[in-house]
Amino acid sequence: MICKHKAAAAAFCIVLIVAAGQTVDFSAFLLIQRGSRFFDIFRAMLPPDTAYAAVVLQPLWATVQMSLAGTAIGAICGFIGAFVTNAYNNQHRWLRILLKGIIHCIRTIPVLILALICTFLLGLGTLAGTIGLALYTFAVMTRMGYEDIESMSFITAQTLEAAGCGRTRAFIRTILPAVLPGYMTNVLYILEANVRHAAILGYVGAGGIGILLNEQISWRQYSQVGMILLLLYVVVLSTEGISEWLRRVLRGARKLTLTERLAVWSSVVFFAGTSLLLLSFPHTDTSGFSAAHAIIEGMIHPDFGMLFSLEYDGVPYLLYETFCIAFLGTLAGMCMAAVFSFTANFRLFPCPAALFARLVLLFIRTVPVFVYGLMWIRVTGPGPFAGVLTLAVCSIGLLAKRFIIAIDDMDFRTYRAYTAMGVSFLGKVKYVMLPQIYPRYVSAVLYRFDINIRDAAVLGLVGAGGIGTPLMLAMMHYNWSEAGALLWGLMLLVTGVEIVSEQSRKKRGINT
Known about the structure:
CATH topology of the largest domain: MetI-like fold
Largest sheet: none
Low-confidence stretches: none
Shape: globular
């Protein structure tokens, strides 16, 4: 019976891959014939224009400030959101459901779309980008926060409450100390992601280095683009290094001296102060209120004809195409990330080789998604096939990082025993490693697929197919009824994928 189920699942996956490949116009012949063109822009970036560095530093600093301020504001609001949406602090089930529904709707919208909406409400500039990042961080951290809180045991808190301590004080004394280290660790992960998000917000006029990057790509000044990416690589490398060090501190693996504590808090105060000073609030006028009214009106009264149309420009087909782009991109990225997870692991390969592989992975994560989109369009032309290849490359970085962590956490005693018996590397992978890392791999792939659904929705900026192109055009032409229909469709798609992923994780006993 189990074999029959596995065979049916395998057959279904094959049919889905073939159908998705036909939908996105997959062509192995085209990839082989024109694949080398992918590196044309990379070659044009070398050597980077070092004289251009002076121009890049100021918008790059603004990008860092946007990510810091957006993460800080979103994390603080997210903690408040987690406090009022968990079952212990909020006894009103209907209110919890309403608040969680609102948070979920915000979380399903890509950061770039949130930033674009903010530009209509607040005007162009870094404020719109910062608020967009803050909304994204708020939604993600609220969900992570209330899920962590609701997974805790409330017995001790309820005991203190029964003794007259009060619900809030009982929460602060028992539950908060248990969830706070994990919450702060998640904030550091979000900060790393927000640095990369902030680098592309300039494409929609939301400030930061993205404006400069968009201009230089449009003018085909690729040596200057190379300089921008090189400096961005340094920033991402520094951010991830500092974040990893702080995570070790939060886990208790690293004890800080008094001097180090003072240095950390001084840095926090300095960066927080300078980041908040960056924000320049616009003068209040009626345009922002008019835009807000139009957006709300479009969400309340979407274009139902487009929402239920079965034509190629209808929401159902666009969602199906977006799903196919994300599915194939995740699948291809998973295969390549699995290879990197072994070659970039210090416990399996010598330090120089693994270090080089990790630096390559970091560079892959640094390059903005739109740059990859433009590079693949030179190979395939505009369309969903370019979107698949773009998401495949973008998936490598995050998946490989999660895979490497899974291997690092593995019990290597059995692996060493098999090595002593002379078992081949492939044999050790099959019989020792896969049984331990499989659940973590599946969890990472499902998480990345969820992200790719959102990323596929914004690839329309470079003409890489899916729902992104009509969504961006509708918003930029202020056609809010069409935008409302597309956004509702996107939210339903993301929700459906999350439900299926969650059920799959529960069935297999996999923790996210």
